[in-house]
Structures are given as structure tokens and as C-alpha cells.
Amino acid sequence: GPLWERPLLEVRLGELHTWISTCSFSPQGLLGAVQRAWSSYCAKYIHVKQGGPAGISMLLAGYCLLSYGWNYQHFSKNSLGSPS
Amino acid sequence: VLHTTRPLHTTQQSLAPVPPLPEKGGEVRHGVIPEEFFQFLYPKTGVTGPYMLGTGLLLYFLSKEIYVVNHETAAAACILSVIVYAIKKFGPNVAAFADKLNEEKMASALAMKNEAIESLQKAIDEEKKEQWRVEGRTYLFDAKRNNIAMLLETNYRERLLMVYNEVKKRLDYQVAMQTLKRQKEQEHMIQWVEKNVVQSITPQQQKESIAKCILDLKALSKSAHAAV
């Protein structure tokens, strides 16, 4: 299909900047993108007949990474490399 | 209030039947990394590529202190080990329980559907039987029509017979009248003739006839004697 309708995983590296230029960065566009990503994640890992721990464990791991990233300043203050 | 001008069911899309859920979710290795990542790196680096990448990244983060080791690291390690142990031990039980719940729901829904189908089928059969009965109604009407025709016929014949009897009675009366009249005329004529004949017999003729009779009798007795 045409470039702007393909999902992100099917876009090649060389066409990435053109793809980014075609996607809309308005609030509705971003909200639509977030909703599509969430619904595709749900359909793939959560709304199945026999799901395992994979569905929520990936969400928890992502949450851990995000929270580590937000609190990095606080962590780096207690590290060895910080000037104290 | 139903607005009949609004078109209903114009699109092909319909909400039912809902397509069934996929059996298994996307493959995930070690619980956090989707299988697509390993497949993505397989052509270039083979099977061990992602693991080498992971080890290298981990060492890089540790050495550059992008990931800081503190008391929370120990807590995270303990929690993770407990979680992994719990999943490995109680996973299948929970899965079986959830499957059983699902099965019960499906069974009840299926039972309802089957019941509805059965009741509708029974209704269809009843309707067919009613239609068959309606077909038989024509025969009923034919029989009734026949009955009525027969009644009319018998009534007509009864009346015909009555008319015939009445006419015959009247004709018989006329015939009886005529025979009676003729009889009376005959009798009267016979009487009149007799009266006239008796009147016409004079005493002279009476004596002559008596004498002739005596002579005849004598002759007859003579012949009778001779015969004996």
C-alpha cells in the first residue's frame, strides 16, 4: 500500500523520514496514533483465548523502564560517579 | 418513535457474528521481549545475536553507570525471582481455572442458542402442521357441500312423490266417479228393462209359457228315464 498508510514496522529505514513527514502531528492525529497502537497491542497480546504472563509483564517492564528514566536524576545523585 | 424514512441496514458491515478470538497471543521470549525482535536479528546474527546484544548493552549500562546499582536493585531482584517462581508454579492451575470459567460461559450461551433454535424449529413444525390442516379444510367443505346437495335432492324427491301421490289421488277419484256413474247407469237400465219386460208379460203369455215349460219338463223326464 501507499507509504502513509503502512504501520511503522513495515516502513524501511530509508523511507523513515518521508514516513515521519506524512504522519499528522495534530492532537487528533497523535491521539489516533496512540489509540491505534494500544488497540493493536491489546488485540495481539491480551484479547486471546490462552494468553500467558506476556501481556501484562511487558506492560510492567515498560513501566519500570519509564519510571527509571523519569527518576534518573535522583538515581545518579547517589551513584559513585557523582561529584559529592 | 421510529422514523421510517431513515434507512436501516444499508451497509455490508454487521456486528454479528463476531469473529472468534485468536487461540494464542504473540510469542514472547522470557516474558518481556517479543519474538519478532529475535526474528528480526536472525538473518544477520543467527541465534545468539540478540543475547550477545543484550549482554553487551547490560555491561555498557552498568559500566557507564547509566543503570545505577543501589538498594532498589536488590529489592527488584528478590521481587522478580518471587514473581518468576510463582508464575512457574501456579501458572497452569490459574490457566485451567480461567479455561473452566470460559467453558461454562460458552456452554451456557450455546445451550441458550440451541434452545432458541429448537423452540423456533418446533414453531416451524407447528406452523407446517397448521398449513397441512388448512389443506384438509377443502375436503371438509366438499363433504359439507355433498351433504347439503343430498339433503336438497331428498327434499326434492319427497316433494315430487307427494305431488305424484296427490295427482294420482285426484285421478283415481275421477276414475272412481266415472265407474260409479256407469255402474249406476247400467243398474238403472237393467232395472228399467226388467220392469218393462215384466210389465209386457200378459197373463195369456204367462199361461202359455207355463204349459210349454210343463211339456218340456215331461219330455226331459222321459229322456232321463230312458237314459237311466
Gist?
Chain A: InterPro entries: F1F0-ATPsyn_F_prd. The complex is a heterodimer of chains A (84) and B (228). Chain A is mainly α.
Protein model, in words:
The complex is a heterodimer of chains A (84) and B (228). Chain A is an all-alpha fold and 84 residues long. Chain A contains 4 helices and no strands. Chain A has helices spanning 16-22, 27-45, 54-70, 72-77. The radius of gyration of chain A is 18 Å and the shape is extended. The mean pLDDT of chain A is 80. Chain B is an all-alpha fold and 228 residues long. In chain B, strands 1-2 form a two-stranded antiparallel sheet. Chain B is rod-shaped and about 200 Å long. Chain B starts with 27 loop residues before the first strand and ends with a helix. At the A-B interface, helix 3 of A face helix 3 of B. Chain B: It is found in: Mitochondrion; Mitochondrion inner membrane.
What is the rounded distance between the termini of chain B?
Answer: 140 Å
Strand order of the largest sheet of chain B: 1-2
Oligomer designation:
heterodimer
| Mean residue pLDDT of chain B | 89
Number of strands of chain A: 0
- Helix percent of chain A reads 55-70%
- Residues in helix, % of chain B: over 70%
Structural category of chain A: mainly alpha
Q: The biggest beta sheet of chain A, please?
A: none
pLDDT < 50 stretches of chain B: none
- What sequence of helices (H) and strands (E) makes up the elements of chain B? EEHHHH
Number of domains of chain A: 1
| Strand content bin of chain A | under 5%
Q: What's the total count of β strands of chain B?
A: 2
Radius of gyration of chain A: 18 Å
Number of helices of chain B: 4
Most extensive chain interface and residues per partner = A-B, 24 and 21 residues
Count the helices of chain A. How many? 4
- Classify the secondary structure makeup of chain B into a structural class: mainly alpha
Order of H and E elements of chain A: HHHH
Topology:
The complex is a heterodimer of chains A (84) and B (228).
Chain A: H1 16-22, H2 27-45, H3 54-70, H4 72-77
Chain B: E1 28-29, E2 33-34, H1 35-45, H2 49-63, H3 71-200, H4 203-227
Antiparallel strand pairs in B: 1-2
GO molecular function, one term (chain B): proton-transporting ATP synthase activity, rotational mechanism
Protein name (chain B): ATP synthase subunit b
Keywords (chain B): CF(0), Hydrogen ion transport, Ion transport, Membrane, Mitochondrion, Mitochondrion inner membrane, Transport
